């Protein structure tokens, strides 16, 4: 009889240990679930931040591109005005007949 009692006692102890292990597994499962949730939220926040940064960069590049186009247009107009001014100067000097009085280094190279 003592063999059956010993076996029953061992089974009872194993049952207790299994219940303890089950409780630990549930606790660990909860912790893993919480960590996974926090990681997911962090990734969502990081993704949102990256998307906002990309939008800001895209807008900045559009603005910079437009500013460069505008500046190119203005520079083109200024160069045109300078060229016209130089041509008008040369025409005036020639029409007055004083181009021989102007030193060579001041004359426009053609």
Could you characterize the architecture of this molecule?
This protein is mostly helical and 110 residues long. It has one domain (2-106). The chain has one helix at residues 2-96. The N and C termini lie far apart (125 Å). The model has no long low-confidence stretch (mean pLDDT 87).
Order of helices and strands: H
Instruction: Output mean pLDDT.
Output: 87
Class based on secondary structure composition and strand pairing: mainly alpha
Number of beta strands: 0
Beta content comes to under 5%
How far apart the termini lie comes to 125 Å
List keywords for this structure.
mainly alpha, 110 residues
What is the element layout, followed by pairings?
Blueprint: H1 2-96
In short:
With 110 residues, the chain is mostly helical.
